[in-house]
């Protein structure tokens, strides 16, 4: 893959993680269950780490990574707007699920890039986190874990 194309793709991936971060912030304001909140906070940290890991890659390639991401994109942005209108935990988790599906799709694609092993390693590691996020959120919705703890 040409460097120019790779940079563009990495930046898109990074933007998705940034969208996720914003979405998680909104979600955290709207979830009461402490255990669930802690888990979501851990996932938020993963996304933050993903953003830094991609910045590091861009720096390795001799580029200056963007420090701000003014134009949010994609499902996560819709998710953020949706989350603002929600009060129930289930709705918030469903909005996060949508965003995580998109993130997982993007990382799945990135995982197939023919790139330097060091870059591939970071993408695979981030992707592993994303799979964990989606899996947890899906199960949380299915089992309504926040309800179980109320009783
Ligand atoms: Fe992420
Ligand atoms: Fe995620």
Can you walk through the features of this model?
This protein is mainly alpha-helical and 151 residues long. The chain has one domain (3-148): Up-down Bundle (Ferritin), CATH 1.20.1260.10. 78% of the residues lie in helices and 0% in strands. It is built from six helices and no strands. It has helices at residues 3-29, 34-60, 74-84, 89-110, 117-143, 145-148. Helix 1 (3-29) runs parallel beside helix 3 (74-84), helix 1 (3-29) packs antiparallel against helix 4 (89-110) and helix 3 packs antiparallel against helix 4. The chain is elongated. It starts with a helix and ends with a helix. The structure holds fe (ii) ion (2 copies).
């Amino acid at each position: 893959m040409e460097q120019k194309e790779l940079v563009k793709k990495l930046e898109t991936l990074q933007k998705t993680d940034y969208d996720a971060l914003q979405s998680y912030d909104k979600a955290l304001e709207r979830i009461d269950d402490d255990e669930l909140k802690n888990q979501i906070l851990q996932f938020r940290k993963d996304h933050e780490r993903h953003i830094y890991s991609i910045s590091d890659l861009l720096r390795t390639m001799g580029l200056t990574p963007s420090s701000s991401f003014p134009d949010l994109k994609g499902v996560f942005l819709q998710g953020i707007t949706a989350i603002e209108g929600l009060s129930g935990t289930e709705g918030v988790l469903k909005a996060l699920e949508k965003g995580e599906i998109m993130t997982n799709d993007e990382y799945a694609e990135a995982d197939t890039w023919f790139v330097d092993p060091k870059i591939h390693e970071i993408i695979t590691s981030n992707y592993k986190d994303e799979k964990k996020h989606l899996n947890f959120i899906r199960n949380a919705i299915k089992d309504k874990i926040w309800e179980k703890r109320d009783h």
